[in-house]
Structures are given as C-alpha cells and as structure tokens.
Amino acid sequence: MTETESAQDSPKWRVEVSKACISSGICLRVAPGHFEFVGVRARPTAGLVHDAEHAELLTDAADDCPVGAISVKEE
Predict the structure, then answer these.
(1) How far apart are CA 17 and CA 20, in angstroms?
(2) Residues 30-52: pLDDT tens digits?
(3) Does 69 score more than 90 pLDDT?
(4) Terminal C-alpha separation, the chain
C-alpha cells in the first residue's frame, strides 16, 4: 500500500460550526488552534481532520459548546 492510499483509507472527521454559535469562546479554550473567530462566529481552522487526537479535542469542544453549534462527524 502506498502512502497516498494509506492517507485515503485513514479515518477523517468533518468539523462544522452552525449559525447557532454564540461566540462563547469555549471551543477556543478546549481546542486551541482548531477554531478561530470570524465576525461573530467561531469556525474551524480546518474542515477536515485526519488525526484521532485532534478529533478527540474537537469532540470535547463540541460536547462543551453551550448551544451545540459544533459538529464532528467521522467520514
């Protein structure tokens, strides 16, 4: 298996922030470097994550979001 095939077969997680975001900043504290504020809402710095440890941090941020605006889904 080539390196490219391995990367294609590895798990990926899609990260999204909905319009329900109230800019609490919890996601920036829980997963620093993975979210940023743009206008009045947070957004992920990468829409697709390939690293399980990062996905776990993002999932923690989603769980801690007071309005449930963050979703992390395995693809």
Answers:
(1) 8
(2) 999 999 999 989 999 998 999 99
(3) yes
(4) 21
- From the number of C-beta atoms within 10 Å of its C-beta (0-12, 13-18, 19+), residue 8 rates as exposed
Model pTM score: 0.84
Whole-number Å distance between alpha carbons of 73 and 49: 10
- 73, 14 Cβ separation under 8 angstroms: yes
Indicate the residue type of 62. Answer: A
Other Cβ atoms less than 10 A from the Cβ of 20: the count is: 12
Cα distances (angstroms) measured from residue 55 to each of 1, 39, 45, 58: 25, 24, 13, 5
Beta-sheet strand order (sheet of 13-17): 48-49, 13-17, 70-74
Q: Longest C-alpha distance within the chain, in Å?
A: 45
